[in-house]
Amino acid sequence: MALAASSRLDCAQDQPPPADSVVSSPLSAVSRDEMTGDVDATEGEQDSSGRNSDVAAPILRSKLSCNFSNHQSNTCTMEGDVRIHGKPATVYVVKASTYLPENSTIKLRPYARKWEDQVMQLVREVTMRSIPPAAGADGDPPECSVRHDVPAVVFSTGGYNRNFFHVMTDVIIPLYLTAREYNGRVQLLATDYEPKWIAKYKFILAALSAYPVIDMDSEDTVRCFPSAHVGLESHKELGIIPGLSRNGYTMVTFREFIRSAYSLQRPRVAPVSRSSGRKPRLVLILRRNSRQLKNEAEAITAGTEVGFEVVAAGPDDVSDLERFAGVANSCDVLMGVHGAGLANMLFLPDNGTVVQIIPWGELKWPCRHSFGDPVAPMGLRYLEYEATAEETTLNETYPRDHAVFTEPLAIHRQGFDKVWNIFINGQHVILDIKRFRGFMEQLYQAITTE
User: Fold this and answer.
1) According to the model, what pLDDT value does residue 98 have?
2) CB distance 162 to 195 below 8 Å
3) What is the tens place of the pLDDT at every residue in 399-428?
4) What is the arithmetic mean of pLDDT over 136-146?
5) Model confidence at 50: pLDDT above 60
6) What is the 3-state secondary structure (H, E, C) of the chain?
């Protein structure tokens, strides 16, 4: 894959860009060895007649509008003379037609999980300042160091950035909803910038933008854009509501985008004939902290004996995203105990099957909400195996006459922390192999043909 081209024309590497330099972005990404090197930004870009381009020149009136009514995220959009100053995390909207003194400053955290106060405090706040046509000496915005001729999208790589489910739900799907419409001609700017995060998701980011993601936190450059989004459009957990998408995006189109980003070759599961000798392929996601599958070797054996080719995938396997995307795409079934690893269903081919093992504790509803409900809109099939009271390590901690076993909902009524500490983080699963084998036989029959 070619390295992304810059959406700006840098000045000499050791010098800051001169004020008010003009930038034009290429129509498509090119590799660094195809570029002719940095260009003096003071010269601007020339058209075919040799004249300097006037791309991204400020217009007479700018617009700023915000939506704070969405349950998932707060967002602001702006167009006109938009200036983004990285280090102070400030966006200036100059000559705004919507300027009013009482709402001239707006702040938001560009992360799509706004109802969780604790995690939102980990996300850097971005300030938007609406400047009147004549602000006066004390209110003048900083001069442009670099001009871009593409829109900007400001988001955060903070929050739950090490959890794959949350990365997809809170960042990647919202980025797709917000930036995909520009077909690569959009500049992404990240607050709470983490190089390892950027590197891990580089193929998705490169598919969304032809230009490297800008680290807003570290640079003092004032970048000027014709328009910008601060915050990301978001609809629901691991999903898209087509009626809310202004471009008609769906989880089917998102998965097509993901397959393209990772060059995945298998778009759809073809039913396997039981007489063909070919085995359907099942990837089993294995956890190593809470909710482990304690008898995983026996589970793998049961699946193999039934007729599956079972691929065991531990945390190290799953964390190698570039490789594991291909592994998941090669499989017909993805199975695992409730947890973030199930979000790798995104890489399954269409008509694949997701099997969620639900731990003990009346967890069917929350487990379905996270990893059951999103399945059908992706063009996949969903099945679940719900553990019984005999299939939990909670038997080692609580007597069988405890409410944990006799009335799990009484634990739920004590609040989320109790549920988390006991049923989510406080147990492992020990499968009843005879029962599990029966389930696997039914699964095998369901996804194969005569």
Assistant:
1) 57
2) no
3) 999 999 999 999 999 999 999 999 999 999
4) 77
5) no
6) CCCCCCCCCCCCCCCCCCCCECCCCCCCCCCHHHCCCCCCHHHCCECCCCCECCCCCCCCCEEEEEECCCCCCCEEEEEEEEEEECCCCEEEEECECCCCHHHCEEEECCCCCCCCHHHHCCCCCEEEEEECCCCCHHHCCCCCCEECCCCEEEEECCCCCCCHHHHHHHHHHHHHHHHHHHCECCEEEEECCCHHHHHHCHHHHHHHECCCCEECCCCCCEEEEEEEEECCCCCECCECCHHHCCCCCCHHHHHHHHHHHCCCCCCECCCEECCCCCCCEEEEECCCECECECCHHHHHHHHHHHCCEEEEECHHHHHCHHHHHHHHHCCCEEEEECCHHHHHHHHCCECCEEEEEECCCCCHHHHHHHHCCCCHHHCCEEEEEECCHHHEHHHHCCCCCCHHHHCHHHHHCCCHHHHHHHHHCCCCECCCHHHHHHHHHHHHHHHEEC
Cα angle, residue 327 at apex, residues 322 and 200 outer, rounded to 5°: 15
* Contact status, residue 319 vs residue 347, Cβ threshold 8 Å: no
Of 180, 250, 196, the closest CA to residue 188 belongs to: 180
What is the structure's pLDDT at 147?
A: 95
CA distance 42 to 401: 78
Distance in angstroms (rounded) separating the CA atoms of residues 82 and 59? 10
Apex CA 313: angle with CA 309 and CA 319, to 5°?
145
Q: Smallest Cα–Cα separation from 424: which of 412, 436, 438, 441?
A: 412
> How confident is residue 42, by pLDDT bands cut at 50, 70 and 90?
very low
Percentage with pLDDT > 70 across the chain? 83
How far, in whole angstroms, is CA 105 from its chain's centroid?
28
What CA–CA distances, in Å, run from 74 to 237, 366, 405? 16, 25, 41
Average pLDDT of the residues in 116-145? 83
Does the structure show a pLDDT above 60 at 390? yes
CA distance 240 to 135: 41
Dihedral pair phi/psi, residue 431, rounded to 5°: -65, 140
Would you state the structure tokens that stand for residue 211, as one six-digit string? 């230009």
Q: What are the phi and psi torsion angles at 257 (to 5°)? A: -60, -45
Q: Rounded to an integer, what distance in angstroms lies between the CA atom of residue 24 and that of residue 9? A: 7
Number of Cα atoms under 13 Å in the Cβ half of residue 119 = 18
Reading the block at residue 229, the tokens are 């989004």
